[in-house]
Amino acid sequence: MADPVVSSAPDFIPHAAEPVREHLAAAAALPDFLAGAGTLTLAERRLIVDQAVLMLDQNYVHLPLKAAMHAVNPVQRLRLLRRRLERQTEETKPPEWLFHAEMSEIFHSVRDLHTNYLLPAPYAGKIAFLPFLVERYEDAQGEHFVVTHLAEGFSAPGFERGVEITHWSGIPIANAVDLHAARFAGSNAAARRSRGIQSLTVRSLAMHLPPFEEWVTVSYVDADGTARELREVWRIVDSRPKFVTGEAPSGLAQPVGLDLDMDETNRAKVMLFAPKVVARQQALQAGDAAPEVHAGEISTSLPDVFRAQEVQTSAGPFGYLRIFTFHHPPQEFIPEYLDLLGKMPDQGLILDVRDNGGGYVINSEFALQTLTPRHITPEPAQFVNTPLNLRICRQNPEELGAWLPSMEQALEIGATYSSAVPLISDEIANEIGQQYFGPVVLITNARCYSATDIFAAGFQDHQIGPVLGTDESTGAGGANVWEHKDLINALKNDPGTPYAQLPKGAGMRVAIRRTLRVGANSGTPVEDLGITPDVPYRMTRRDLLQGNADLFEKAGQLLKSLKPHAVSITNAAATDGVLRLKVKATNIDRLDVYVDQRPRASLDLSDGQADVTVPDAAAARSARVEGFAGGELVASRTAQLN
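The structure corresponding to this sequence follows.
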């Protein structure tokens, strides 16, 4: 190999993609950004710590679990920090970044991406980035770290997609990833290491201090085998606004399970590496014709939420639906999801939720019913029993009354947790029933979190299909998260509320209700454990550089081994007091018929078709047919009649 040479990349922003060029033009170099940081007074620091003690001690549902699993005591650490603040003056207080660093470290110690200290201005709403992305794959020689995306307009000698990174600022790249992973709050080892890789080039400053280094030196091997080095400066820019056309739901009655760090980082990656998605969003917002999608891709009105297409494998063509986030208003998410699902080929579906940090629980729980004939049991959730949580439930009986009796009883019996109550109703979880009738494979990784953990757990617990995991577990975020402002709102009518507004845009989030699995795993917490895939898989170089080619091939082989089952009502007619149904079925040997939720007929099938006559049912409002194969329920279809 040739001796390493240092290459200096030109400023790429004037050559960035047009849809994001103006936004990126406001980016600042790290030293310039830090020059305006640091305006918290001593009193404001004390207030922040006091509110943190209150939230972690009285609201944090995982505190007993985290103390046991990770041997941490964040509340005591906060009290010690508060004591030190009492002895400081405005003249003797340490630099503000040290205060933020300690607060972040305390919150990160519980390894919970729901429970965060959110930095105030000027950090809030900012992203630190380098103009390229690094990802990992494995082969017989071990693990490799390669560049998979470059921001448009960025270039350096020999620095292109596929080059292998060997060192990061002089540290062997695998060691550098481990060092980065130790700073991030993933709930398990796989999640932490995955975050460590991602944080090499993209970080949200809402949860993390800016990088300590003003630039990084990247050692890499180009396509000719020449060893090179690139020095690239960190830039700071505003987070890209969310693409929301409708009003986002709010309030305690609409539970959220979201990894905010992942949500912010994903939007930054779209801005840097998928500007065509931004162009589509801008066109949709302006009411213009959206740019054409790639060949084989299905157009969507929510391009930052979904990607849909047909993929070709040696096992045949299959549908592919990527869900990037559940954090979008349900009134827009659910209709678009159903529309795209209806356009998927019926021979099989690859459902991909990798890197999905969660969002509205209703979106993830609602989606499950569309993929299975089985009745969906939504995951239940529990509060930790504390005087302040009890007070919150008493003040909000309409939204939280279901948990109140058990919390009242806990005063007498000393129970640690409240009763477990689903976050969404059974009616919503089964409102429309099965909509897709081919086999389904779910792809997960360690960056699946919160509402996506809930979705993956429900997918596995209801035996919808195999879970194909590119990591040994999902991110293991099993909770409903509340922000500090939600806690203020929960006691807004209580004159003695202990919550106070935080200064200068600072914030905090806390896991307030933990979720439990159902079915064969009933009662198992999702937090820290996550969902173990049925079929483990390791990403390949072809996956990273050729659009998941080997991953799709693996998913296709799994789908090929599964038999599709379908049932449909092709015609319904009511005459002379009789309801007549024509039913078509695939791979089904028995059919049960329900009219207005009552069982009315059961018949064996041999040729996949049946004419069903139901007397005294001409005025029926709905009909449901359930198909069985070998005595097992495999398909269900409901038709509204009147």
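The chain is about 30% helix and 25% strand.
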